[in-house]
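Help needed: design a sequence for this.
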């Protein structure tokens, strides 16, 4: 690997003969496979050689941030520039993690073992989606840290203590009524689990009451279909970023996919010959088969053939910059929001879910029933679809026609 990076034999020998040469070379090869450029690899090689010379002999037992910062300070004194220490840390930490030598800072939590078991139970026993597990685990963690801070043992917890939690955290975090409702749902689920294990009173979960959230209290938060057309037109360019983003935006707007469903979409879910797209709907927890529209097939094929890097990941959408990894669902907000802002589109929400709302409103304007729209969006019941009835159907029918006939 060093011979590919450095043309000078003396420099190559310097890297080969340095400490931890095999470990450094393996990591550099891994970075190259993830799309790192030659310049980036040369910089990493230089910093890692310096780090390897200053690591203790027992580094394989674990290196923590304090130890790494001590080495970084030596690096700062050995070269000019104020960024040397930061650069060393940024390069060293991924290398140490790659080797399994990084000792991450542990935030002591009295209930960490219970939290880990709770996450496993939600995933393995209840079969909840990864997003739900992460969200409910986060709510339980905040609650248990509050119990620690206020010295409230779970075994003696009372309903009045739960009320204090909502007052304290609600004021500090500025929870809205909807946020309180989501917190109450997650907390009730955790308390039921805790009661099942005898960790708290089995009657405690029933005392957690959600505030009233009216089903149709707000209008759909998506843009008009004419604005969706503008977004798709704007991204119809030869720029690699636009090619990828256009395929993503079409899946969000035409199929009404959730951001997690787009991020987890795999190559084997696209049936090119049969012109079909198999989506795994998160809420229904089952696969659904959709016709692959020609416009969407063209956008996906163009991205996969011309832009998608040659990586072994099964996911369709990959980061454009090294390290090449599957795109995260949270990144889709930035992709959608960037287009809303660039075009000056005024709507309550600018994220990927706004395009899902636009899809539902468009289907409703085309005369589809709630059942048909709910099936298309992957809803579990028609009640989840009813909110889209509160739109101006007449004005929606004036939007330019977009061929969705194959979706019916």
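Sure. Designed sequence:
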């Amino acid at each position: 690997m060093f011979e590919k990076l450095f043309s000078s034999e003396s420099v190559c020998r310097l890297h080969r003969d340095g400490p931890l040469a095999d470990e450094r070379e393996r990591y550099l090869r891994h970075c190259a496979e993830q799309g790192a450029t030659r310049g980036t690899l040369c910089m990493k090689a230089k910093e890692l050689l310096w780090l390897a010379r200053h690591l203790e002999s027992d580094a394989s037992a674990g290196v923590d941030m304090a130890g790494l910062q001590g080495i970084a300070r030596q690096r700062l004194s050995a070269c000019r520039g104020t960024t040397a220490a930061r650069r060393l840390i940024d390069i060293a930490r991924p290398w140490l993690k790659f080797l399994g030598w990084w000792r991450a800072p542990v935030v002591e939590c009295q209930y960490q073992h219970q939290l880990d078991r709770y996450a496993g139970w939600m995933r393995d026993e209840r079969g909840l989606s990864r997003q739900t597990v992460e969200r409910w685990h986060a709510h339980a963690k905040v609650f248990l840290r509050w119990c620690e801070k206020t010295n409230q043992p779970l075994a003696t917890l009372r309903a009045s203590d739960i009320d204090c939690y909502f007052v304290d955290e609600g004021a500090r975090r500025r929870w809205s009524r909807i946020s309180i409702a989501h917190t109450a749902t997650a907390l009730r689920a955790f308390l039921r689990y805790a009661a099942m294990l005898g960790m708290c009173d089995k009657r405690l979960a029933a005392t957690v009451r959600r505030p009233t959230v009216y089903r149709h209290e707000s209008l759909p938060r998506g843009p008009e279909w004419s604005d969706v057309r503008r977004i798709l037109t704007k991204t119809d360019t030869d720029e690699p970023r636009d090619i990828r983003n256009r395929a993503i935006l079409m899946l969000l707007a035409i199929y009404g996919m959730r951001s997690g469903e787009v991020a987890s979409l795999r190559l084997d879910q696209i049936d090119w010959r049969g012109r079909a797209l198999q989506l795994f709907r998160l809420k229904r927890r089952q696969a659904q088969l959709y016709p692959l529209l020609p416009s969407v097939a063209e956008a996906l094929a163009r991205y996969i053939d011309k832009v998608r890097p040659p990586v072994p990941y099964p996911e369709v959408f990959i980061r454009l910059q090294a390290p090449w990894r599957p795109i995260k669902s949270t990144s889709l907000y930035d992709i959608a929001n960037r287009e809303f802002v660039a075009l000056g589109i005024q709507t309550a929400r600018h994220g990927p879910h706004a395009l899902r709302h636009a899809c539902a409103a468009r289907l409703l304007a085309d005369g589809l029933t709630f059942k048909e729209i709910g099936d298309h969006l992957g809803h579990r019941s028609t009640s989840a679809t009813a909110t889209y009835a509160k739109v101006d159907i007449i004005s929606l029918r004036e939007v330019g026609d977009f061929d969705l006939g194959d979706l019916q």
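The CA atoms of residues 188 and 208 lie 6 Å apart.
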